[in-house]
Write a structure and sequence with these properties.
The protein is an all-alpha fold and 69 residues long. It has three helices and no strands. Helix 1 (6-18) packs antiparallel against helix 2 (27-44). The radius of gyration is 16 Å and the shape is flat. Keywords: Membrane, Transmembrane, Transmembrane helix.
Amino acid sequence: MLTINVAVLLAVVVVWRLRRRTEARSRFDEKLTVVIVLALGILIAPTPAGQGILNFLGELTSGVTQASR
């Protein structure tokens, strides 16, 4: 039996949608992409990979903040 992880499927859809030319996108198309990306973020957030990304971004932002002082 073949199972597909929903987060992986959404990631593929996001990459596919973002590869299209900007001029070819309608406003509805852009809004749909934002909704898909938000859904992907909600699915990834509680996973260990999501927590690692969150920690990395937290360290990056604190480093940038300290560097700008």
